[in-house]
Structure formats: C-alpha cells, structure tokens
Amino acid sequence: MIVTTKDLFRHAYGKYAIGAYNINNLEQTVGLFRGNLGKKAKNEDPIDSSQSAPFIIQISRGARSYSDKRMLEALIRAADEVFPEAIFAVHLDHGTEEACYDCIDSGFYSSVMIDASHEEFAKNIEVTKKVVEKAHAKNIVVEAELGQLGGVEEDVVGSVKLTDPAQAAEFIEKTNVDSLAVAIGTSHGAFKFTGKQGLHFDVLEKIQKAIPKNFPLVMHGSSSVPHEWVERINNAGGKLKDASGVDEKQYLPAAKLGVTKINIDTDGRLVWCAIHREQFRDDPANFDLRPPGKIFMQAYAEYIIHKNSVLGSTGQLEGVREMLKKGGGKTGGCCCCGH
Ligand code: G3H
Ligand code: 13P
Ligand code: ZN
Predict the structure, then answer these.
(1) pLDDT higher than 60, residue 152
(2) Alpha carbon distance 169, 188 (integer Å)
(3) Is 102 one of the catalytic residues?
(4) N or C: which end of the chain has fewer CB within 10 A?
(5) 294: which residues sit within 8 A by CB, 6+ positions away?
(6) Contact 180, 172 (CB under 8 A)
C-alpha cells in the first residue's frame, strides 16, 4: 500500500527512523520488498512481522531516465501486488522543479523532494514554496533541503555548509514544507570521511530546538559503507580504497533528535557490486544473468533486514498498519499529532 511519508513520519517521529532506499532495477525492487517484510529467499516466504518494517522507495532523476520512468513505476506497481502486506511511500529523490511537477502530475508519487539547496536562501524558499503549493493541492507531501552536503576533510568542513538552525526555522515557516533535509556532516557516496569524523549532533540539537515541535528532519548521505562489503569488493578485484561511511550506531541517536528519514543508496550499490564481482570471479564459465541476480536479491533482502534493525524500524510495520486503520491512510493529516 502506498502512503505518504507524512503518514510514516507520524508513527516514527522521535522513536526510530524510516529507511529511504533508492532503486534502479527489478532485482533491487524485489530485494527491497522482501527485506522489508522479513522474507529472504523467496517472494512466497511467510511475512515475519517481528522483522517487517515500513519504508520509503526513492527514485532519483538518474533512475527515472536509466531506462524509462514508466518501467520503474510499473515495477513498483507490480511489487505492490506481489507483496500486498507492504506499506511504503514512493518518493522523488533530489528533484528539480520540473521533475517535481512531472511526478506530482503523474498521480503515482506520494512524496517529492525539491532540492534547491544550491540556490541562495531566498531563491530556495521561493522555489520550494511553489512546489509545496502544487503538491499540497494534490495531497502530495514535499521534502526540501537547506545547507550543503559535500566532502569532509579531517576536522575541516570543506565545501560543506552545515544547516543554520535559525534559517531552518525561517525556511519551514515560509515554505510550509513537510520535512527538511539538513546538512549535519554526511555526504553522498562511498568516501564520506577521511578520519574519525561523524555527525554534528550539536548542530542537529540546535536545529531541533529552533524548528516546530515534532517536525521531521531528513538525513541524506547516510550509507554506512560497511567494511565487510568493501573488503569483499576489493577481494574480488574492486578498487575502493579508503571507502568509509556513517557509523550505524549514530542512526538511533539522530532519530531521537528528529531525524525521521535516513537515505541509503550507496550501501545497496556496494552489495550489488560485491555479489556480482564474486560471481564473475568464482564462476567464470557462467554467462547467465539469473544466478548472480538470485544471489543478489537474497543478499539485498538480508541487508535491508539488517539496516532496518539499526534504524529501529524493524517490527514497526503492524503498528503503522494499526495507526492507518484508525487515522486514515494516504494524505493522513498532521504529521505531528495525527489530526
Ligand atoms: O543522492 C543521490 C542518490 O544516491 C541517487 O544517485 O542520482 O546516481 O541515482 P543517482
Ligand atoms: P548515500 O550515498 O550515503 O547512500 O546517500 C544516498 C542519498 O542521500 C540519496 O538521496
Ligand atoms: Zn541525497
């Protein structure tokens, strides 16, 4: 069942974070749905409610144009039929104004991100406000971004612009946006930190104090870039020297400070890369795409189960279902109090 991110945030706020996972193809889609229902090997496996979780599917502009946006949308529609127990939001990741309008008009997305974080503050407000008005008219919710993620040098915040708490409060008030992505030390990709840096909890705390109570924050660039998967890639011929990510132990403390959506893309790519490299290394005579595909779908489902456990969303699916039954589904009212 497709719901808005607002519905999911209402249940999670302050307790746990919802995993927002990017997809590009069939195998990722199947692994993602299986993992979030606690199924590993087969679609037909019984749902394991102790491991099942609500989740967000993210589609980037790159993913939309990889083949054709309609192909991805059709995959998600099919997955919704194959896995009727799943509860998830469909979200445009890092949208331009044009991409947001396309997704709003499509009638398929329940949530869009307008990313005008590279613009001046006033322009970011202006563009975000326009998108919010169009989206809200169709009961679609909007995420925006304030501040700039980027590469981080040891103890030096390079091109990064951490989110200013006072600006965050003003931005939310002037745009009427539903959630806000903040820059608190993370960056996209597999090379986030050169030393022992981590999240700037001091900044996050100040942001949470400055903005309206229970307003959901989003953390981009949150892959943990697990050493185990990087090592497997490198042992199978890859060259990912010095890859590093966010410490998974920092997810829940961030969730307690209002981070309700945690974006993961790179980790899924690492799992994909390791499995395929190992397959080509270990079975050089094989030229069939299905054997590595099958192994990947299972490995990805298992990875999602693990990820949800560190985000705290594991076992929360039935609670979300109950909440939706009581409070109504898609478009679901105030994220903060359920009204
Ligand atoms: O934040 C960006 C996501 O990782 C999407 O990456 O644009 O290469 O699909 P992509
Ligand atoms: P990672 O590169 O850390 O997976 O971040 C993904 C992301 O922020 C998608 O919007
Ligand atoms: Zn991002």
Answers:
(1) no
(2) 25
(3) no
(4) C
(5) none
(6) yes
